[in-house]
Amino acid sequence: MWTLRSWQGRFLPHPLPAHERLRAYAGWCTAVEGNTTFYATPARETVASWARQTAPDFRFVAKLPKVVTHERRLSGADEELRAFLHAIEPLGPRLHALWIQLPGSFGPGDVPALTGFLRRLPTDHRYAVEVRHPAFFTDARVVRTLEEALGTVGAEWVPFDTTAFFRTPPTSDAEREAWSRKPRTPLRTRALTDRPIVRYLGRDDPARTVEGWQPWLEQVTGWLREGRSPTFFLHTPDNADAPELARRFHDAVRARLPELAALPEPPPVGPLTLF
Q1: Does the N-terminal peptide bond of residue 15 adopt cis geometry, omega within 30 degrees of 0?
Q2: Is residue 45 part of a domain?
Q3: Which residues fall within 8 angstroms of residue 242, CB to CB, at 6 or more apart?
Q4: What PANTHER family would the database entry show (predicted)?
C-alpha cells in the first residue's frame, strides 16, 4: 500500500527507492494493512527490510495468503501456512495481528472449519477474522456462533464498514469500480478483544468521507477510554488522500481524548530551501 503512485511526490518523496518508501509512509501513519501478502508470500528478506524501516511499535496487520483462505478454504494448506509464518517472522513485535479475510461464500456452515483452523494456529500470534457472508450480520444465532468460535482463541472480528460508500451512487471511475467489487455489509461496532481493528471505506470526496466516519469517532474514543488499543484503517476508492485523511481522523479522536499520543510529524517531501 505504501507504494501507491499517487502518493509519490505528495506524501512520499520522489524519486525514492522502493526499499525506503515504507519508512516514509511510517512518518504519516503508524499502521498498515499487509494486503500484498494475500497474493503472494513475500521473501523473508523483504519482510526483514520492512522491519528495518519501521519502529518496533509500528503495526502490521498481515493478510493470510489467498491459497489458504480462498482456494483451500482453511483446509489442507499447512505447508503454505508454515511458509507464510516463517516469512513474516522478522516483523517481530510489529506484527499486530494476522488477518484472516474469508470469501463471501464462506458461510455459517463453514464455522466449524474456521474453529478447527484457529485452534491449530500458533498461540504466539493474535488473529483477526473478516467475514462477508450476509448471514453473519443478519442472523443473531449465527452471529453468536461466530463470536463463540473467535472467542475460543481470543481472535477479533474485523468489520469492513462500507455503509457510507454505498449510501449514494458512485460519481467517479474509481468509485464505480469499487461499487462492483466491495461487499455491502451492515455496520458492526462490537469489539471482542482489547485490540479491535476497523476497516472503513469512504468516498473520493474527502468531505463525504469525513461525514461517513462520524459514528466511528465516538466508538474509537470509547474503546480508548475502556483501555483498548484500536487500529483504524481508512480507505477511499482511489486512496489518493488516504494518509492525510487518516491523520485527520486521528486528530478528531485526539480532540475528544487529548491524552492520546500524536502521530509522528511527516518528513518534508520536497527539497529543503532557505526561502
Answers
A1: yes
A2: yes
A3: 234, 235, 236
A4: UNCHARACTERIZED PROTEIN YECE (PTHR30348), UPF0759 PROTEIN YECE (PTHR30348:SF9)
Nearest 5°: the CA angle 101, 136, 115 is: 60
Sign of the Cα pseudo-torsion (141, 74, 233, 229, in order): positive
Number of domain units in the chain = 2
Query: Cα(102)–Cα(73) distance, rounded to whole angstroms?
Result: 8
**Spatial CB neighbours of 190, under 8 Å, sequence gap ≥ 6:** 157
Q: Are residues 214 and 251 in the same domain?
A: yes
Order of strands, edge to edge, in the sheet holding 95-101?
Answer: 31-34, 59-63, 95-101, 127-130, 156-157
Structural domain that includes position 165: 159-259
Q: At 83, which CATH number? A: 3.20.20.410
Chain position carrying cell 498461540: 123
**Cα(116)–Cα(30) distance, integer angstroms:** 33
Residue 141 DSSP SS3: helix
User: What pTM did the predictor assign?
Assistant: 0.95
pLDDT tens-digit readout, 223-273:
999 999 999 999 999 999 999 999 999 999 999 999 999 999 998 886 544
> Do both 87 and 177 map to the same domain?
no
